[in-house]
Amino acid sequence: DAGVIQSPRHEVTEMGQEVTLRCKPISGHNSLFWYRQTMMRGLELLIYFNNNVPIDDSGMPEDRFSAKMPNASFSTLKIQPSEPRDSAVYFCASSPRRSLSGNTIYFGEGSWLTVV
Amino acid sequence: GQQLNQSPQSMFIQEGEDVSMNCTSSSIFNTWLWYKQDPGEGPVLLIALYKAGELTSNGRLTAQFGITRKDSFLNISASIPSDVGIYFCAGQRSGATNKLIFGTGTLLAVQP
User: Are B43 and A91 an interchain contact pair (Cβ–Cβ within 8 Å)?
Assistant: First the structure.
């Protein structure tokens, strides 16, 4: 089975440009997560969705960041306008239906963003 | 964002040695997960723990869910060069969310 699929794998963009990162979760998973990884702050949860509905976006750093999940098989994370401090690896992850014993989360390979 | 305390930060060992790393929290978790991240890749799940006191193995890896539910450890026996990478613990609290909180990571280097 395919894992979590992210695109693009790498993006270099100029400050002020709009960046859109895409994610296709594992089929049948009903939770989707966007994480950001940097050397200074490690892995941070930005936002997550259950059944396509945003549940917790408290990790979204600023209004410049927005995320959507129009259907169960697709999500986007958008940064507009981008800034150099947004440079990081952005991971999408998905998880199956939550059970009382908890759930494991499966990560994509990440989108490496550099804003110059 | 909030992170778990993971130690050690880094380890440099010889091939064949055993490795131990741990994660602690001031909060109780109902799930502990251990991930490994290779350079340029996303974290890959190694072991999942769902009950306090649970001891689970996956090949040369063994992890335990602490009795207090505030800690977990991971052991790697007879390390090999491909064990190199960053190991992360992650905890999940009880409640109506799937939210994971990650540890700060342990960088493992194995000298052949």
Answer: yes
Spatial contact of B28 and B93, defined as CB atoms under 8 Å apart: yes
Strands in chain B per DSSP E: 5-7, 10-14, 19-24, 31-37, 44-49, 55-58, 61-65, 71-76, 85-92, 100-102, 106-111
Compute CA distances B4 → A96, B86, B101, whole Å.
24, 15, 7
List chain B pLDDT tens, one digit each, 112 residues: 566 899 999 999 999 999 999 999 988 898 999 999 998 899 999 999 999 999 999 999 999 999 999 999 999 999 999 999 999 999 988 664 667 888 989 999 999 9
**Could you say which residues from 92 to 111 on chain A have a Cβ atom under 8 Å away from some Cβ of chain B?**
93, 95, 98, 101-110
